[in-house]
């Protein structure tokens, strides 16, 4: 199978393209210049296209930054769809990353794929991102709403581990806030299954079915290094530093992977302890 991948140099893209090549897939990278994807004849005859593009949103959210964040997500999805609009042969499947930020701050609900949208910039961003993806000439579309991705070589976990090793690990805001998470290996596994299995279609929450409190998450991460968490940063201090972007770290959402469970997807790392220890063994 020949697969075109946008966002191949990011955290998920690096892991996914390596796994695809190891499994014998032919990977055709989609380079970019800023938010403009460079699509050409190399991408005509592909069986699948995967869009993992997206600007890191862990910054203060000025109006200009919000527009750039939208362009790097919804804008790239639109470029892919326009590219294949007039092509006689279209990919069989379009797979896209998305985010559980769609649900907003919802600590008291179990959120499934059909739960309504939350409030705020993140929710609005994801809604527009997904709408642009589904406005496609490609028949089968799979969108994965990602939780916190655990990896030893990118994302938030290495930074947290570094702070813990220096005795600077801290609870941010409410210790009881819910963290809905997924191991990088399960992200890759789900995306490859979506390539292989035509039954995969629509929106999927890509999280384990064992979310944890922030306190449990940090305690388990600290235990990997025989440390303990003593510090706590009040929510107002996090907001003082990050502004509205603090919601990325402070929001609580109990997200459930209903459609993945119905598809008999088997998680490699369903529990937080084994997931974090696997990262330590890889050099976290």
Describe the structure.
The chain is of the alpha/beta class. It has a domain at 2-149 and 181-209 and 253-268: 3-Layer(aba) Sandwich (Rossmann fold), CATH 3.40.50.720. The protein has helices spanning 11-22, 63-85, 121-134, 157-165, 184-196, 214-223, 235-242, 247-250, 258-262, 272-281; strands at residues 2-6, 26-30, 32-33, 36-37, 48-51, 93-99, 106-111, 140-146, 148-150, 170-172, 178-179, 181-183, 202-206, 212-213, 231-233, 253-255. A hairpin with a 2-residue loop joins strand 3 and strand 4 (36-37). Helix 2 (63-85) runs parallel beside helix 3.
Provide key terms for this protein:
alpha/beta; single chain; 10 helices; two-stranded antiparallel ribbon; 6-stranded parallel sheet; Rossmann fold
Topology readout:
Layout: E1 2-6, H1 11-22, E2 26-30, E3 32-33, E4 36-37, E5 48-51, H2 63-85, E6 93-99, E7 106-111, H3 121-134, E8 140-146, E9 148-150, H4 157-165, E10 170-172, E11 178-179, E12 181-183, H5 184-196, E13 202-206, E14 212-213, H6 214-223, E15 231-233, H7 235-242, H8 247-250, E16 253-255, H9 258-262, H10 272-281
Parallel strand pairs: 1-2, 1-5, 5-6, 6-8, 7-16, 8-13, 9-12, 10-15
Antiparallel strand pairs: 3-4, 11-14
Helix pairs in contact: 1-5, 2-3
């Amino acid at each position: 199978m020949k697969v075109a991948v946008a966002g191949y140099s990011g955290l998920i893209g690096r892991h996914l393209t390596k796994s695809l090549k190891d499994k014998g897939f032919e990977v055709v990278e989609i380079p970019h210049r800023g938010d403009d994807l460079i699509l050409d004849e190399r991408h005509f005859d592909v069986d699948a296209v995967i869009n993992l593009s997206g600007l890191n949103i862990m910054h203060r959210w000025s109006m200009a930054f919000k527009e750039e964040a939208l362009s790097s997500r919804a804008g790239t999805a639109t470029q892919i769809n326009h590219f294949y609009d007039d092509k006689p042969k279209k990919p069989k499947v379009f797979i896209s990353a998305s985010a559980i930020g769609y649900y907003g701050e919802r600590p008291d609900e179990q959120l499934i794929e059909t739960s309504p949208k939350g409030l705020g910039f993140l929710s609005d961003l994801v809604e527009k991102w997904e709408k642009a993806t589904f406005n496609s000439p490609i028949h089968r579309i799979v969108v994965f709403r990602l939780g916190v991705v655990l990896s030893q070589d990118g994302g938030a976990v290495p930074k947290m581990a570094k702070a813990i090793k220096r005795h600077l690990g801290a609870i941010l805001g409410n210790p009881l806030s819910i963290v809905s998470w997924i191991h990088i290996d399960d992200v890759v596994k789900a995306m490859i299954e979506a390539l292989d299995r035509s039954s995969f279609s629509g929106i999927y929450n890509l999280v384990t079915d064992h979310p944890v409190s922030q306190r449990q998450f940090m305690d388990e991460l600290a235990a990997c290094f025989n440390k303990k968490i003593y510090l706590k940063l009040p929510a107002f201090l996090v907001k003082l530093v990050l502004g509205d972007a603090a919601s990325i770290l402070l929001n609580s959402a109990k997200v459930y992977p209903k459609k993945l469970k119905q598809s008999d997807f088997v998680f490699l790392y369903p529990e937080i302890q084994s997931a974090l220890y696997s990262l330590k063994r890889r050099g976290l």
